[in-house]
Amino acid sequence: MSGRIPVSVLGATGTVGQKFVRLLADHPWFEVAAVAASSASAGKRYGDVVRWREPVPIPERIAGLTVQESAPPLPGPIVFGALDAEVAGPIEQAFARAGQYVVTNTRNHRMEADVPLLIPEANLDHLALMDRQRDRGWPGAILANPNCSTAALVLALAPLHQAFGIEKLFVSTMQAVSGAGYPGVASLDIVGNVVPYIGNEEEKIERESRKILGTLGPAGVTPAEFAVSAHTNRVPTIDGHLMTVSVGFRRRVTPDDALAALRAFPANPRVACLPSSPTPPVEVETRMDRPQPRLDLERGRGMAVTVGRVRPCPILDLRLALLGHNTIRGAAGQAVQIAELLVAEGRVDRPA
Amino acid sequence: MSGRIPVSVLGATGTVGQKFVRLLADHPWFEVAAVAASSASAGKRYGDVVRWREPVPIPERIAGLTVQESAPPLPGPIVFGALDAEVAGPIEQAFARAGQYVVTNTRNHRMEADVPLLIPEANLDHLALMDRQRDRGWPGAILANPNCSTAALVLALAPLHQAFGIEKLFVSTMQAVSGAGYPGVASLDIVGNVVPYIGNEEEKIERESRKILGTLGPAGVTPAEFAVSAHTNRVPTIDGHLMTVSVGFRRRVTPDDALAALRAFPANPRVACLPSSPTPPVEVETRMDRPQPRLDLERGRGMAVTVGRVRPCPILDLRLALLGHNTIRGAAGQAVQIAELLVAEGRVDRPA
Amino acid sequence: MSGRIPVSVLGATGTVGQKFVRLLADHPWFEVAAVAASSASAGKRYGDVVRWREPVPIPERIAGLTVQESAPPLPGPIVFGALDAEVAGPIEQAFARAGQYVVTNTRNHRMEADVPLLIPEANLDHLALMDRQRDRGWPGAILANPNCSTAALVLALAPLHQAFGIEKLFVSTMQAVSGAGYPGVASLDIVGNVVPYIGNEEEKIERESRKILGTLGPAGVTPAEFAVSAHTNRVPTIDGHLMTVSVGFRRRVTPDDALAALRAFPANPRVACLPSSPTPPVEVETRMDRPQPRLDLERGRGMAVTVGRVRPCPILDLRLALLGHNTIRGAAGQAVQIAELLVAEGRVDRPA
Amino acid sequence: MSGRIPVSVLGATGTVGQKFVRLLADHPWFEVAAVAASSASAGKRYGDVVRWREPVPIPERIAGLTVQESAPPLPGPIVFGALDAEVAGPIEQAFARAGQYVVTNTRNHRMEADVPLLIPEANLDHLALMDRQRDRGWPGAILANPNCSTAALVLALAPLHQAFGIEKLFVSTMQAVSGAGYPGVASLDIVGNVVPYIGNEEEKIERESRKILGTLGPAGVTPAEFAVSAHTNRVPTIDGHLMTVSVGFRRRVTPDDALAALRAFPANPRVACLPSSPTPPVEVETRMDRPQPRLDLERGRGMAVTVGRVRPCPILDLRLALLGHNTIRGAAGQAVQIAELLVAEGRVDRPA
């Protein structure tokens, strides 16, 4: 195992599970020790049961692993969660109860009071929330990454919120089909088309953004007080959630103020040192027709978000467009970075 | 000429020009008597110089017409304008000076104080503005249809503005490539991609919507006083501009109020009688994932707009999605309907 | 029932079933008297259970019908088949046994020796094959339309086969996603992508084309003797199967020979008189970049095929491109035309 | 210049020129010393005039270069050619006359008797053809890479031709829009559509494939004697030319024979040692629905081609599908590999 920390992946045959496998295949700190999936796949060779959809070959060593049942114990201090929400709840809790840290992309526990919902560049201090799960009698814990569109939105706006205090926020998304998993969106519904509806997505954005940018106090997280009005749409792109935003602050903010704040976004060294952390986390574009999924998605290896078209808003302070990679910053990559944080913060021992 | 009114089409070889030719080919009141284009095409057979892109065969009689120069005189009391904005200004004025009515899709004169910018269902009374062009010494006049995204937006919101008075309006568009003409958007820029920028489109929406919904008084049109914040985006669809909207009114408005107003939108009989007028002009959708370009675009033969997802907005009163056909209601179809209005209102004589 | 012939539709909630409902809604000879589907939908209102995907509103009268079980008796002499192949076999046979004519789009019985596989313009005489089903003791019969890509290919090549005798045939298809039904192809597999494989499609083309163009004799149909090499691919279009073809004949054939034969394709008056028959059934294009799905699909209301780029082949006689509408000529429209033939040929009585 | 060989890029602002810049930015042997373009751009900063469309940031050092005129002298022994064919001919000849090696993607000289048309894995020995250009009195020489679809086709078939001798070849392509440059294909022509025509592409495939696989003798290259029938189509993908092929050989060949030959394709060490050479150059896929542009394009960093679906052909010996990256193996990457060959073969000195 070459001195790396063993980890396991739940739901490893799905699209997010595959992204975990890909991102972890060459990870400097982690090594996939087990892949788990439904009983139908358990006992079989991973490479034989996964319908691999990543545009790089399946990592050979992991392809050779035997798929495990999604139940403790699985190897390693960290278990990545990519299960269907329908089944994830009790399974994730079982792992926490068994003493493992579950870093999960699944939505089930995101809004629970003692579960940190993390974008480390934005709310590193919320990590401490995990200690409250000891009150459940769990030696382990559950940590969640946000919904895919929320992750991009909140990371991009965090510098502005920290600098000026968001008061009102309109966001209209144009989200890629990979956000719906596989098979997900039927091609008949989206080729040459746009669908102005994604189930529960608007609620997630409105709810999760206020928790992530909320304030941690003795009684837990007090959600940020801004109002969010979200419109979510599915467009025929493969990866990348692009959004248009109008945002108002507690004080008057000009585009120049905003650009300065975005460019000065402080890189907390406790986060910047993580292998998955991009530099900078928020890229600023001044070309008028950017960001675009095809051209800007891979910035920071999919972990950076790009903000462009920062300009005045006739109603609130600013208008802007932003882009994030929905399956990296918005899913598996975000979870991996959170797991790295557990190591860097000493929650998980590095191998001797 | 079989008892129909002769009309001419300027810029007949372009995409909007072709749409005019198609819509007028079987028109009950009008007959294309001349097609005009640049000097390069003049003197040649229309069917030989047009790169016909409509999904129906080119009308045989019109294909046989000889292309004319874009200068007066051209046959008929009405001349439809589909020229490039770079050259349209003086040409359109020359036709008005020569006594013809120019109903134009080109942007040049839209914001001039004496030029009506018309969506007949929304601002029929603005037609009278044309009489002010006599002060220019013109026996004819120029009448304009709005920008493509503005047309859909304003028609959909007109019932709400009339009922409740719009105060603030956010709109984020997802616009089809046909809106950019031919060759227009390069495929490398849009296949599997979204571009969060369309040149001057946001300004047009903000400016034109307030003129169309403005009040005609003795001194001309006083623009409506609401604030508009527009975000415009290009998506890989062929036809149809889909938009998400948050809107606030002078008084509190619920979704039920809005649905009632949309459904009750009064069909002015002076407009409803026009051959191109759809019934109803604003279709209301209650299926949660509608409207969609692929499924809803052809309603009212492209002249109706569809409004869906009417729901509360956490910041303003309402959120909704709307869809309009950008080359029919948003361009040639709108101009044809305006020309029909000239006939119905007695500005143009019907043939004996 | 206004003097029209009652018909029933099996599998009416699926995509082909919906296309049947749409095509039959305004049919001059037929009227949908019953829609049938799986037990899960039976007993409910059709409009409530169908996930309607046609770009026109669902016909109101049919929306109000109560969904029936897919078992005899259902009203009318003709039952249209759009069931899943997994269940269609015994059900279709039960209707034939019960004395009804099943005109089916499902593949199950296509290759049976006593089942006519029909493209009326190409093999009208094969209709007589249905009489052999009396040997099964069936007062009714099963009649099949071909696979979607086969239908376009064979109709386009029928004039050439009749004139010159096909010997060898290469075909490489580019097929739309609607050919796979709903949800069918996952958008992640096809947005910005091409898949060079469609399950069993190549076998169907090779087998069915030889039956359709075969010779009816006392012992049944002797398949045409040409060899077919098919390559089938899925592309991101919604409707329309485009194909490139190289074809060799029993004698040397030039492009001019072929164009003459295509243009002279005799319209058998027994077929040309049917309401769904297009005139001509095979359209010839000489513009070098045609046919294209977006521009040529609706010819003959989806019942015509378009042939273009007829040019010499360096190996066989000719190269060409052809296009057909996969859900109209390639599915429901073809079945409706076959049913019309049953009426025109006196197999089904017209209402008094 | 850090010990690397200086090179120049002609036509550096176009799409292929940009690909050259990107591929050369981190090249272990070469360093871009000059970028040249039309007079309109000359004298300006490259980063200011290029409309950069690559999905990675423009290399900073190269962005800072001043654009040169496209005329000798330009720095370095090697000049990469990405000019428009309309102007490239005399310019490329001027550089050869001036003593430089022009490795060009432009089509102008490909078929000239003394110009090597190279895919090093397939016809390394043709390199010697360049010496014949001394007869033109040129101290330098022109070397060409093939047309984009030809490059993928020929590399994939080279192992089969070497092993069995191709006799007949049908190919039907599905080509990405990047093959047409920028702006290239209008989005209105290709979104949700397929165009069964690419100007001159079929002729290029038929002609170039026979030269590349031809035999070098004292009198130059004798083209391979097989017949090629090509059908070329444009599909809505960004990168990657996918093709279906039927191929016949001088002797009977089974799929197993072919798979063995593809897998055993000898890696000539003189080619395998080049930095751009992939291992293996021809990847074999046995998954039934592969290769696909989205999943297989990046193999060998765009320099490998992938062959799949090897199966019997009912007419010739084999059917198969193949995929190559049109702007890497089919353009700039191929040219860079040829330039590497010049160095490895001692035609260009390595820096001391």
Tally of alpha and pi helices of chain A: 12
Classify the oligomer.
Answer: homotetramer
Question: Could you say what the CATH topology of the largest domain in chain A is called?
Answer: Dihydrodipicolinate Reductase, domain 2
- Report the biggest beta sheet of chain A as strand number plus sense, adding barrel if it closes: 6 strands, parallel
Strand content of chain A: 15-25%
Query: Could you give the distance between the termini of chain A?
Result: 12 Å
Task: Give the number of domains of chain A.
Answer: 2
Describe the structure.
4 copies of one chain form a homotetramer. By secondary structure, the first copy, chain A, is an alpha/beta fold. Chain A has 2 domains: 5-145 and 332-344, Rossmann fold, CATH 3.40.50; 148-324, 2-Layer Sandwich (Dihydrodipicolinate Reductase, domain 2), CATH 3.30.360. Chain A contains 12 helices and 14 strands. The model of chain A has no long low-confidence stretch (mean pLDDT 97). Chain A binds chain B through residues 168, 170, 172, 174, 189, 192-197, 206, 227-229, 231, 233, 235-238, 242, 244, 246, 288-295, 308-309, 313-316, 319, 321, and chain B through 168, 170, 172, 174, 189, 192-197, 206, 227-229, 231, 233, 235-238, 242, 244, 246, 288-295, 308-309, 313-316, 319, 321.
Summarize the structure.
The structure is a homotetramer of 352-residue chains. Chain A is α/β, with parallel strands linked by helices and 352 residues long.
Key words describing this protein structure:
352 residues, homotetramer, globular, 14 strands, Rossmann fold, alpha/beta, 2 domains, 12 helices, 6-stranded mixed β-sheet, 21% strand
